[in-house]
Design a protein that fits this description.
Strand content: under 5%
Keywords: Cell membrane, Membrane, Transmembrane, Transmembrane helix, Transport
Organism: Pseudodonghicola flavimaris
Radius of gyration: 24 Å
Number of strands: 0
Oligomer: single chain
Helix content: over 70%
Main location: membrane
Shape: elongated
InterPro entries: BPD_transp_1_N, MetI-like, MetI-like_sf
Family: Belongs to the binding-protein-dependent transport system permease family.
Length: 306
């Protein structure tokens, strides 16, 4: 088990390093941030001095090594645009993103669990076909398009919910639906497949033969075992929502980390972009690592075969 854990941790570290290299190079390809920081009539001496102060005059490989050294201690530098430590900026914007991702996860579970269970129980029925259609639709529609449709229908047309901001609990409803719509499809398939396997097991047939109520048999006994794959994958879904909230936060003007990173990208604020994307990569790697370890604990064959 120790070798299994060390191997997974080493793979996660290499994944994070790879993500840091990619985002570091891509941000440098976006242009010179000093051009946006100073007025066009700024003297060349001031431009040169600013580049030296920010360390942009150094070779790229040296800038990257300095970034890794500082990031290892939790120091991601100072934001060019907001002129504050990046770590403080992230900690200030992160709660809003966590709140949105949590609401989106709750929404996706509220739909996927009943859809998956009922589809498995009534296999081949109209509801099963309807749930499959919803799942396919969820995979086919990107979250920004879902967000725009929700704004047009519920914010502009019906005027039921606000289209932007985060002042009241009502403001989180539309962005949570937009962000959680895609995971509904995957979670519904997981629950349906697991329920079909459980419903064909011997102890379910035995329960029906002795007269156990169908509702109790399905929700207490069958779903409890079928929920194991969903529970182990919830961490991955939550991490993907944290990392995938960028576009949704921009569409709904949600004051979270994703919107901050997008604004920093347009401002060529390298430290904020690097830290934000690296945070998303770390969360996703940690979530996958926890899922792998949980499967390794549940099934010893996994940790011996891999």
């Amino acid at each position: 088990m120790t070798r299994f854990v060390l191997r997974r941790v080493a793979q996660g570290v290499f994944s994070i390093l790879g993500a840091s290299v990619i985002i570091f190079i891509i941000t440098r390809l976006s242009g010179d941030p000093v051009v946006l920081m100073l007025p066009p009539e700024a003297p060349e001496a001031l431009v040169t001095q600013t580049r030296e102060r920010l360390g942009l005059d150094l070779p790229v490989w040296q800038q990257y090594l300095m970034f890794l050294r500082d990031a290892a201690t939790g120091d991601f530098g100072t934001s060019y645009r907001w002129e504050m430590p990046v770590r403080e900026l992230i900690l200030d914007r992160l709660p809003a993103t966590v709140y949105l991702a949590s609401a989106a996860l709750i929404f996706s579970l509220m739909l996927s669990i009943p859809f998956g269970v009922i589809s498995a129980v009534r296999r081949g029925s109209w509801f099963d076909r309807f749930a499959k259609g919803v799942a396919m639709l969820g995979q086919a529609m990107p979250n920004f398009w879902v967000g725009l449709l929700l704004i047009i229908v519920f914010a502009i047309g019906l005027e039921w919910l606000p289209a932007y901001g985060a002042d009241t609990p009502k403001h989180v409803i539309l962005p949570a639906i937009a962000l959680g719509w895609y995971p509904v499809a995957a979670q519904t398939r997981i629950v349906r497949s697991a329920m079909l396997d459980v419903l064909d097991s011997d102890y379910i047939r035995m329960g029906r033969s002795v007269g156990v109520p169908e509702g109790l048999l399905i929700w207490k006994y069958a779903f409890r075992n079928a929920a194991v794959p969903l529970v182990t994958m919830m961490g991955v879904y939550f991490a993907s929502m944290l990392g995938g909230a960028f576009v949704v936060e921009v569409v709904f003007a949600w004051p979270g980390l994703g919107r901050t990173v997008v604004e920093a990208l347009f401002a060529r604020d390298f430290p904020v972009v690097q830290a934000g994307v690296l945070f998303a990569a770390v969360m996703f790697v940690i979530a996958n690592l926890l899922v792998d370890l949980s499967y390794g604990l549940i099934d010893p064959r996994i940790r011996h075969d891999r």
